């Protein structure tokens, strides 16, 4: 799934004021990181991930790993070591951004 145009701009603007919810360090892309990512993305829909200086993970490696882990995850933006991902929440009560996207 690819999000373009107004919807992508909206998600980027919302992520601009967010702090990173996850950090990828020297452990790299571990099972623990993927489990934490799944919990956070299902509750928040939009999360920011930071790649720390001591990690060997490249941004594209993380994008590929998260897409393999869950094919509904959409990469929104990468700026330096910060990355933004979106996934529509499975529970209706956790949907905030997806409701706005549907109204665009």
UniProtKB/TrEMBL annotation:
> Any keyword Lyase?
no
Keywords, in A-Z order: RNA-binding
The record ties this protein, via SUPFAM superfamilies, to: YhbY-like
Show the Pfam families listed in the entry.
CRS1_YhbY
Show where the CRM domain sits.
1-98
Tell me the first and last residues of the signal peptide: none
GO molecular function annotations of the record: RNA binding
What this protein is called in its record is YhbY family RNA-binding protein
Q: Which organism is it from?
A: Companilactobacillus suantsaicola
């Amino acid at each position: 799934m690819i999000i373009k145009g107004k919807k992508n701009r909206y998600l980027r603007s919302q992520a601009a004021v967010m702090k990173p919810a996850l950090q990828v360090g020297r452990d790299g892309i571990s099972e623990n990181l993927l489990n934490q990512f799944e919990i956070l993305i299902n509750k928040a829909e939009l999360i920011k991930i930071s790649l720390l200086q001591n990690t060997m993970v490249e941004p594209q490696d993380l994008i590929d790993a998260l897409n393999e882990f869950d094919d509904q995850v959409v990469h929104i933006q990468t700026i330096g070591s910060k990355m933004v991902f979106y996934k529509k929440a499975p529970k209706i009560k956790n949907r905030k951004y997806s409701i706005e996207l549907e109204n665009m």
